[in-house]
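Structure tokens please, single chain.
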Amino acid sequence: MKKILKYLGIALVFYLMLCLSTPFNSTLRKRSIQNQINYLSNLIDRGYDDQLQRRFPEGKLFSNALLALSTIEYCNKTNKIDPQYSKIVDNCIARIQSKKSVEIFDQNLNPEYGMFYLGWSNLVYSTYLQSDLIAYSEIPDEVFTTSQEITHLLSQIQSDSLQILNTYAESNWPADNLVGILSIKDNRLQRQWTDLILQTSEHNSGLIHHVGGQPQHIRGSSTALITYCLSKMGYKEIRSYNESFHDQLIDKYLGIELVKEYHNGLNNMDVDSGPIIAGYGASATIMNIKTQASLDNPNAKITWAAMNAISLPINICGSKYLILKQEPMLDLFMLWASTEL
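Here you go.
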């Protein structure tokens, strides 16, 4: 019995060392990303995004957008331009454009279908078009045309009257607007639109608010995403903005950065926050890994390593999954974060 316990202990230590060292080792990190893309693409090909749609308001669109972006970014970072990955992105785009994805959004909005749909879908299109991976796409003309149409639509609306655009009827989220702003690749409009959102916020930290109608309230999950978008579009004051984010919502323990969903540490969970433990939000903390990695913060790898370890990863036979396949949305967020490390 003692020998068995000894060997189990050695195996456990080895397992934890692998989990914690993955983001710091190029070979382990690439294997992790490749196998997670493989697992998630097969899962979504079998229709799991329809299950996510029943659980989350925009689950089908969001899951396919995260998988597509992760695949493109991985290929860009590693210069692994392979037709199999282009096929994954093409399949994601087909599902993004499917009736099931679109039907929950309001076609009568201005802009049509609203900013969540337009922002995330166009971020996929524009990122794909800037990647060498597009050379293997079977739908490059469709991707280009659709992206141009969205960009033209948003530019036309904002040229008439600069405004924060709605996701649903009479409701807007600045984070959805920032994703859309990042997708259009128009520096002048990006600055004008971003300045409007910043001017509209009333939080004393200068951070952008979570939802329209409550300009004085911030949330960790949306702030992490907003900060990422600002970083990627080259916002000049991003370092100062990120410092305010840290001051208001981030606590650090041994290099692990945990993000509070609410400034006052509440545990009120919703679809945006994901699980909240002791005031720290899962969605906010994982999204912040990608955000901080984009700003070359070394704590991003430490935090990802910790989240990877507690997620009990299984990485065998060309597939990697977390928490015994119980929450693939966690896998998608962890995958998207890992492509920035």
